């Protein structure tokens, strides 16, 4: 009930004050609550989630202001397979020079990884991770690049005691390891420019991980496009046809979920190889179907 008889000076004033403030508070609560609750949807609506051209990572200056990626690798041995260690060490130096030049126009000071470890077994990696199912791994905290070199890091170098099976035949055996090295270097670059540190503001999940990994594949292909174009073609094609895997079904599914399918990997490698730019490797604005 309400009407003239309910009116009293004090109560009326109080009710009036509540009546004025309450709607404002309600609207405020709905806006704040709604923003928190619908954050992901709002990001989609406003176009700031990964997968949108307007997301913070997609518009990062790394993609628009970096210099071209690629170039020949001076100092790389003629026979790539003769001494895997020497080849990978020379490639690491090339990648340092390359990324320093690429990042300069974007105003980013490149820093070399603290260490490049050519390990004979995953247990020797610097990260101390329990995950031993990898060909290469980048330890973000320590800035250490680890690459698994089959047969041990000393295989084929120095006295060359037991390298009867791969004595520099030059059939590109070491090239997949070179690609892994370039991929881990790309993770190092992503860390330097701050892309892999976006997990504070963006949702960190498997979809996010796939964009990060496929970008690293693309950047690795761009980095090696002039170094060994034919071997890069072979590797990309074998990936596209899914002939490279001997993993269990479960491992393969996990790999697909966090790194993207082989088909997606091949697609992004092709883009990096063709274009040779960081912008061509902007997986962050790609539709979901290209990073699945
Ligand atoms: Zn990776």
Automatic annotation (TrEMBL):
Main subcellular location: membrane
Classification via Pfam families: Zn_peptidase
Subcellular location: Membrane
GO cellular component: membrane
Entry keywords, A to Z: Membrane, Transmembrane, Transmembrane helix
Transmembrane portions of the chain: 21-38
Membrane topology: Single-pass membrane protein
Name this polypeptide is given: Metalloprotease
Gene source species: Planobispora longispora
Native organism taxonomy: Bacteria, Bacillati, Actinomycetota, Actinomycetes, Streptosporangiales
